[in-house]
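Handout, page 2. Input:
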Amino acid sequence: MPLDTASTTTPIRVYLVDDQTMIRAGFKSLLGKDPRFAVVGDSGDPRSAVARIGEMRPDIVVLDITMPGLSGIDAIALIREVHPKCKVVMLTHHEGESFVDQALKAGADGYLSKDSDPAELTLALESVSKGQAYLSPKVASALLRRSARGDESSPTTRSRIEMLTPREREVFQLLALGKSNKEVAKQLGMTVSTAKKHRENLQRKLDCHSPAELAILAIKEGLLGA
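Output:
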């Protein structure tokens, strides 16, 4: 008899942090109907949430930006201190480029607008759980428009991209898609240690230190579709 994969797959454990009670209730209700996810806790106080996250050790924290006492962006570093392997998805009304840049530079793995379709939340959670960066299409579109205007493509950024070898460019694109060192090595026919060395060189050359930062740079430079 075939196994029921839905019942044997371990759900993705999610912790919600948002100062609006109704918003948290809505997200809990949405995710509670999907067997792929389990909401293990929620909080409206970001500082209290950090301690609980260290105890609960969820797979993903869904985090608002504007909250009393502590910004969600500032909370990312505190969360990583108590739970380094935790993924962080920003879920906010703020779609401005400055907020996106700050969140990704702080280490967020995904950025999602609260105006997005509810199905996009589950897509974002699945993506970051697999090590892939996720940007809401609305956010990515804004970044592409800014890139087209030339606001972000500074000479320094262009020169860094142009300095990449063809092989580094291939690795860059795969890493921006969230591929692991092992996956990059398999796809490009190299050793895992070589893939790891390429990752380290790219992070240094491009000043990108997370899959999300690599993804946003790749989108700006036209190496990935939005």
